[in-house]
Amino acid sequence: MTLEHPREGEIIQIHSYKHNGSIHRIWKETIVLKGTPNYIIAANDRTIVMEADGRTWITREPAICFFYAKHWFNIIGMFREDGIYYYCNLSSPFVRDKEALKYIDYDLDVKVFPNMTYVLLDEEEYERHRKEMNYPDVIDRILKSNVEKLISWIHQRKGPFAPDFIDMWYEKFLSYRK
């Protein structure tokens, strides 16, 4: 059951799963900056992350996260000393229940550097999991199509890749931390 979209300022957890239903990763505390039925923009900094094997670690830098209800990817903009890096997960659209915002991580990732060059990561892991977990052909086609959409967004500087867009959300995040 999906709930109403989260309220601005609400603290949520993010749960990432694998296609077979197993938990992949949990982010303990993320603050919602904007929630609509179609997308959620959230942020965290130095939040605890728990891996599937129980190990935990703490994020090193502020991150603005963009989750979509209709796109098969999510985008995380990370603020580092030398600029904003984006980590884009090819994933199912998000769902939300009382427990958390949830999505299925499909292994493929696009890392975008501050100069807007990018690299596609984890293609071998994707192929291995596609076979092991029997990703349906339709999922394979959707994901490959969404890699192309994501790359198009990067080239067009669309959405989170637009100049100053992520800075605006970071300012909003800072206003909650005061």
TrEMBL record:
Keyword entries, A-Z: Hydrolase, Magnesium, Metal-binding
Domain of life according to the entry: Bacteria
Domain named DUF402: residues: 20-158
Residues the entry annotates as binding Mg(2+) 1: 89, 105, 109
Pfam families in the cross-refs: DUF402 (PF04167)
InterPro entries according to UniProt: DUF402, FomD-like_sf, Ntdp-like, SA1684
Cofactor: Mg(2+)
Active site: 25
A GO MF term: magnesium ion binding
EC number(s) given by UniProt: 3.6.1.15, 3.6.1.6
Binding positions (Mg(2+) 2): 107, 109, 122, 125
Catalytic activity, as annotated: a ribonucleoside 5'-triphosphate + H2O = a ribonucleoside 5'-diphosphate + phosphate + H(+); a ribonucleoside 5'-diphosphate + H2O = a ribonucleoside 5'-phosphate + phosphate + H(+)
Function: Has nucleoside phosphatase activity towards nucleoside triphosphates and nucleoside diphosphates.
The family this protein is said to belong to: Belongs to the Ntdp family.
Protein name, per record: Nucleoside triphosphate/diphosphate phosphatase
Organism: Anoxybacteroides voinovskiense
